[in-house]
Amino acid sequence: MTNHEVLPLLDQVADSVSQVIAHARPELAGADPVVRRSEHADFQSNAALALAKRASTKPAELAEALTAGLTDDHGPITRVEISGPGFLNITVPDQLIWSHLAARLASSRLGIGTPNTGQRTVIDYSAPNIAKEMHVGHLRTTIIGDSLARVLGFLGADVIRQNHLGDWGTQFGMLIQYLDEHPEATWHHDELEPGTSAVSALDELYRAARGLFDADPEFADRSRNRVVALQSGDPATVERWREIVAESEKAFRDIYDRLGVLLTPENSVGESFYNHVLADVIDELTEVGIAVESDSALVIFSEEVNGPDGNPAPLMVRKRDGGYGYDTTDLATIRYRIHDLEADHLLYVTDSRQALHFQMIFEAARRAGWLTDDIEAAHVPYGTVLGPDGRPFKTRAGGTVRLMDLLDDATARARAVVHDKNPDLPADQLDQIAEQAGIGAVKYADLSNSRIKDYIFDVDRMVSFNGNTGVYLQYAHARIRSILRKAGDPDVAIDSTIELHPAERALALELDAYGTALADVSASLEPHKLCGYLYDLARDFTNFYEACHVLNAEGPVRSNRLALCQLTARTLQHGLDLLGINAPERM
Ligand code: ARG
Hints:
By secondary structure, the protein is of the alpha/beta class. Among the domains are: 9-92, Arginyl tRNA synthetase N-terminal domain (Gyrase A, domain 2, 2-Layer Sandwich); 170-261, no CATH class. It has helices at 9-24, 47-51, 59-72, 94-105, 136-154, 171-181, 198-215, 217-231, 235-259, 278-287, 326-339, 355-367, 403-421, 427-447, 459-462, 470-486, 502-512, 514-524, 528-547, 555-578, and strands at 35-37, 43-45, 79-83, 87-91, 120-124, 158-162, 292-294, 297-306, 312-318, 345-351, 376-382, 385-386, 455-456. Helix 6 (171-181) crosses helix 7 (198-215) and helix 16 (470-486) crosses helix 19. The chain is globular. 44% of the residues are buried. The mean pLDDT is 95.
């Protein structure tokens, strides 16, 4: 296999149109040739309509001139027809289409290049809070962040994943004090009943501690002293804290393993990691005059964002009691990612309610001179997961939905639909496929929605074999794999002289556009564009398979069609993998 890049036909056509534009009308050189896929031909260029005015001519005239140029040209174009007021309908040679497919099949990267090479991208995602259960709110950041890490990494970026765990803060003083005063409380992994996790036990104990803190002023005092002990490094307290962090991380790891996300323990760089540099960061911000005293606290007043009272909104650098919070840590974090990790691309995947927080962190980092113009920082926000009633997703009792329960539910339902479809699957295979289908369904349902929108968590719809679902795509892949197995999984060669059937053509052009879909994801940070692409691809395959015999065809027609099957299966599997979703061989 090679790893040669294959330029998409669309890009080649666009290059040709650009050259002809520059030749026919030098004043338009460099203008967008506005080339898209078309229903009426292979591609369409709307350049004549878009540019006529600038060239002081009529669209029809410019269309004529471009057509003449394109027909004389020896580029990738066989035919140009003008339609309507000046659309150019462009057809490319069959031979060229086949040769593109052959080159993609021969490539271990499906002919996709590495346009993000040279970029160092830090992606901040997942970031659950220690001693608190991961809930449905952490699902989206974990899934979206992981998919972006995969796509950008595949496109050549040097991706550094950062799990900014909430592992520091005054709440730990309260919890540690409570645990010490209640030695009978069980919360260690190995003391718990199977199915319950250390974080759920800690979550409950924390609630109890909080209740006591509010009710008993003496306990509140002891807790405050415990915070001081933790922050000043008292060994016994720090040891306790470490234990709590380790037990919580074990529980998070169970979820990560089940979701199949890339996050490893080395990616855990929590809030506590920045503790020893906070004072230094604050000195720096104070020296350059960005951080100022206000009401005995140290704050940075925004020049961009106003608070609800109409005054500049503050970032809290040091609280009145001398403590540091979420804002301080994020200031230290962005400095670390720029200066120590040497990132030139910073992504923060958190829910949309944190938009102002990150806007103000970026603003402060810019004013401090850390975030320079050659570095791109972006908050990657997402909407809320809603229950069937259209309200934020809660359990029937109104509590937060545990992520583990939600995954169990999805895999159980996936098991039922897979069993219905394929009653002969042996139980162990069924279990494995149900897990892949259930987890895939949850991930796909999340990723296939436009990121910023809220969506309704509807398990029955997610695990359906019909519609734009993960299960539909996994099934499309498995069906093609079964066709290929029946054919004996041959190594096929493509004969480029065979005329393309219209359904083959539609599928082939879609296959050729995989890299374009990935580039769209990279530019917009919207994984749903990849979902949409894969869904279209699966439908193009279905149309092809209905219109064209594969196994019953003969000679080079059969080989070419098997090649289309192979490339479709590989593209589906690859695309699902970039979404973090398995593509089982059977379903
Ligand atoms: N732990 C936070 C939460 O659960 C998310 C942290 C996001 N990352 C960051 N650098 N602030 O909401």
